[in-house]
Structures are given as structure tokens and as C-alpha cells.
Write a structure and sequence with these properties.
Strand order of the largest sheet: 4-3-2-5-7-6
Number of strands: 10
Largest sheet: 6 strands, mixed
Radius of gyration: 20 Å
Structural class: alpha+beta
Order of helices and strands: HEHEEEHHHEHEHHHEEEHHHEH
Number of helices: 13
Shape: globular
């Protein structure tokens, strides 16, 4: 990671700033991305939306305005498993997940928000686990999705026929050896199932996917940052003031702004009133932000913003994207 930071600074120091995101920052941005992604699969009520994601070192949980980052090191779990065996480590891994939930979510406003969740998006490595289990890319009842992921956990607990049958068709883009692939799958799937089972209401629907829409857009923190940049550009340009009818939406789609943990209003669902708009409006409709961001996203990034891996591996980002977004909006603003 240090070598990566040094290389980025050496090459892009004149045009970019390297920012290390905290776990809560990452969750905030993922939630903003999740609100947009949910709109692409027909979910427009952000107040009952939860997002669950997991990377190499942590797992993020959001609902409403509340977020948490759970310290759950997937690499450490695999290392312990190589020493103690999978049966013992799987039990230990679940205890660690429960302990993080008790420490950071139990009794908090986030727990209350999760209890009201009607839809949850499963992102990043959670989505990969669900895809391997055959429950990604469509809405599933919580119990059905978790049951299928737990079947995957059972199959991956040992290097037996059930696992070998799955491994034959399992994508392996990083060229992992058989033992590492099995354990990476096992502990990522066990984490996804445990987090969803512990935190989501029984009646919730879940939608596991890394990408949303057509062309597909990867839903992760980088999309949230991209949309945050789009929101700020819209405000700078005064588009909602100049063309209110074009970007109108029902009053029910409006909500009050939320302050980011990074010190600025964040996400497509949080916005401030543009000059000239009534102070009681609660901010421009979030749908307006989504559609405006979407219009220039598709014109300037036909395949959508994507990342090569989970943010939890390094939690770092080059902030060249907002600058690119600003130039794109200026170039494609409607006449």
C-alpha cells in the first residue's frame, strides 16, 4: 500500500490529491452510490434502504442516515484457518462478526434504522458470494438468499466433491491457488450470510449485485464520490435554478440535507437549496441529481465508473474523478 501511495503521488502530485478514507467515509459514499443503484432496480424510497458491503479488511453497513464500518479482516481469517483448520476458524469468524456488530451497531440509531429496512443491497464481496451461491442479480427474500449462501459455506468448508463441483465454474480472475480460492470464498460467504442474518429484518428483500443498470455501473464508494462531485457541479452551475421544470420531481422525493463525515454535504440523496429556491424545500429532489449525473455519466463514461477491486483493500482514492466530472458536465450541459 505504501508503494502504491508513493507511486500515485510521484505521478499525479500536480493534478490530484490522495485521500485515505475512514471506514465511515467509505460507508457514506457507498450509501450514496446505493441510493442511485437502487433507483435503477425500481427502489426510490431511500428511507427504507440498507446497504451491506464487504472488502478485504472491513465490512460497511448503512441504513437511512446511519453508517458503521466493521473491522473484519478476511486475510487474517484465512491465515488462521491454515493454522487451526476451517471448522475451528469458521466458528471463531462468526464470533468475531457478532462481536463487531455488538460493539458498533447494537443499541445505536443504525440498529433502529436497519429494523425499518425493507430493501437491502448487497455489494462488493457480498455480491460475489451471492453470485457464487446463485442468488445475485434479482430480488430475493432474506431467508432464501441467506439459505443459499449458507449452502455455499457448507460446500466450501472442506475440499470435498461439493466444493470441487462449484470450483469448476468459479471465476478466478486473480489466479488464486485452489486452497486460497476455497478459503476466500468460504470466509467471504460466511461473513455475507452472518451480517445479513443478524442485521436485516426477516421481511426484507435483498438484491445482491456489484453492478446495476445498462450499461452496467459498479456500485461502490467510487460511484458515490462521482455522484457527490456531480451534485456539487449542479449546484455550481445553478441548473436547478435555471431549469426548474426540467429537473422537477414529486415533493415526496425531497428530503433535508445530511452532512458528510468528510465535512461536506454528500451523496445524491443529500443536497442544499440552490440560490433562489424556497428555503423550505429541503433541497432539490434527489431524483433530479440522479438523472443529471446519469446523463453525463452515460455521455462521457459509456461503461460507467468502475473500480478494479474492493475499496477495503486499501481504502484509498485518487481524487481525479471529481475534476473529470466537472469538465464533463461543463461540456455536456443542455443548451
Amino acid at each position: 500500500v505504501n508503494d502504491f501511495f508513493a507511486a500515485v503521488k510521484a505521478r499525479f502530485a500536480a493534478v490530484a490529491t490522495l485521500e485515505v478514507l475512514s471506514g465511515d467515509d467509505e460507508a457514506d459514499l457507498e450509501h450514496a452510490a446505493g441510493v442511485y443503484a437502487a433507483s435503477l432496480v425500481g427502489v426510490d424510497d431511500a428511507t427504507t434502504l440498507a446497504t451491506l458491503s464487504g472488502g478485504g479488511l472491513s465490512a460497511q453497513v448503512t441504513a437511512g442516515d446511519e453508517v458503521a464500518s466493521l473491522d473484519l479482516d478476511l486475510f487474517a481469517a484465512q491465515k488462521r484457518a491454515a493454522e487451526t483448520g476451517d471448522e475451528a476458524e469458521l466458528a471463531n469468524w462468526r464470533r468475531l462478526i457478532d462481536a463487531e456488530i455488538e460493539k458498533k451497531i447494537a443499541g445505536t440509531p443504525l440498529e433502529a434504522s436497519l429494523a425499518r429496512a425493507e430493501v437491502a443491497l448487497g455489494l462488493s464481496m457480498h455480491a460475489t458470494a451471492a453470485a457464487t451461491a446463485g442468488v445475485a442479480g434479482t430480488f430475493k427474500k432474506k431467508a432464501k438468499a441467506i439459505g443459499k449462501i449458507e449452502e455455499l459455506v457448507r460446500d466450501a468448508t472442506s475440499d470435498g466433491p461439493a466444493w470441487r463441483s462449484r470450483a469448476e465454474t468459479l471465476p478466478n480472475p486473480y489466479g488464486l491457488d485452489d486452497a486460497t480460492l476455497r478459503r476466500a470464498t468460504l470466509y467471504a460467504a460466511a461473513r455475507a450470510a452472518r451480517v445479513a442474518d443478524r442485521l436485516l429484518p426477516d421481511g426484507a428483500r435483498v438484491y445482491f449485485s456489484r453492478t446495476y443498470g445498462a450499461p452496467p455501473v459498479t456500485c461502490d464508494w467510487s460511484l458515490g464520490m462521482f455522484l457527490d462531485a456531480a451534485r456539487r457541479v449542479v449546484e455550481d452551475l445553478g441548473v436547478l435554478e435555471d431549469e426548474p421544470d426540467r429537473y422537477s420531481a414529486p415533493a415526496a422525493a425531497q428530503r433535508a440535507p445530511r452532512r458528510s463525515r468528510r465535512g461536506s454535504t454528500s451523496g445524491t440523496m443529500d443536497c442544499r437549496c440552490s440560490p433562489g429556491m424556497p428555503s423550505s424545500c429541503g433541497g432539490p429532489p434527489r431524483t433530479s441529481m440522479w438523472r443529471w449525473a446519469e446523463s453525463f455519466m452515460l455521455e462521457t463514461h459509456p461503461t460507467g465508473p468502475t473500480t478494479s477491486g474492493s475499496s477495503a483493500d486499501s481504502r484509498s482514492t485518487s481524487r481525479t474523478a471529481p475534476g473529470c466530472a466537472r469538465r464533463a458536465v461543463r461540456a455536456t450541459r443542455p443548451a
